[in-house]
Amino acid sequence: MVLAFASFREILGKEREICLVEGATVRDLLEELAAARPAFNEAAFDDTGALRDYVLLMVNRKRIDPILDLSRPLQDGDELAIFPPLAGG
Amino acid sequence: MLGDAEKKRYSRQIRLFGEEDQERLKRASVFIAGAGGLGSVISLYMAAAGFGKIRICDCDSVELSNLNRQILHANADVGRAKAKSAYETLTAINPEIEVEARIEIITQENIDQLLQGCDLIMDGMDNFPVRYLLNRAALERKIPLFHGAINGYQGQATTIIPGKTACLACIFPRAPPASVFPALGSTCGVIGSIQVTEAVKYVTGAGQLLENRLLLWDGLSSCLDEMAYGRNVACQECSNSGH
Description:
The complex is a heterodimer. Helix content of chain A is about 30%, strand content about 20%. Chain A is of the alpha+beta class. Chain A has a five-stranded mixed sheet with strand order 2-1-5-3-4. In chain A, helix 1 (about 5-10) runs antiparallel to helix 3 (about 40-45) and helix 2 (about 25-35) crosses helix 3. Chain A is globular. By secondary structure, chain B is of the alpha/beta class. Chain B has helices at about 5-10, 10-25, 35-50, 80-95, 110-115, 130-140, 170, 185-205, 235-240, and strands at about 30-35, 55, 100, 120-125, 145-150, 155-160, 215-220, 225-230. Chain B is globular. The interface between A and B is medium-sized, with 20 and 40 residues.
């Protein structure tokens, strides 16, 4: 299950279920979303294909590092929350 | 002590939390960073609620394109310093409080002097570099930082209590890029109001604060969500300030 917030929600919708192969990682899931929605690809990844470093990621409501933890394998039923911080005032 | 006019002015709040807590608000000294969209809502409600000393800081002048959301300022204020316009609006709303206006860019060099004597920091900024300065100053002084930010229909808020909660850099280790963001006054209204409610609760001790909770407002679907957070053990800011 993917929970998207703020501008990611406008692209992906509030929640969506994604079926992945066994052993798929957080990066696999993000790439699947990026392939399905070019606007998400542009919003979440830079020109080199790296995840933008300010994007917040949580697996089962626990924070993971957007650089170090992308290779973390996901389990059936895991929930990934993705959120771009807002900066305006 | 509250005078007769104050007892009348704040009578509905005194019904809510009593005279003693109203006096606590009167003794509170607040720094409001920014007199823009969030700063407008924050300062108007804090002034009206009777926070005794309000220091509001903004380096900019009022532009026509600000007036869709920055309700401290009126059409006649275009071209004037936002801090001056804020001073006039806030003292007109509540002459019982002390308002101080500072026309300055908040920097590493002047932040100590700007925060002198303040018990609470209200975040009405539009960029992360200055927010990180406010965060560090809050940690050093051990005073709370009430964070808020908006973009279009979306908003976020959290309350940072040094020594107790995650700091702003724990939650947002890296700043999103600066940009000209879309802004709706009513989103500033939602988030600024939440920040003021948090500050009132902090001073009066009522309820539960947004401690280690990032509140997310989605005006498009009219949904409030929250994300739970903890301290980041690798956070440079918290560890540097000895927390």
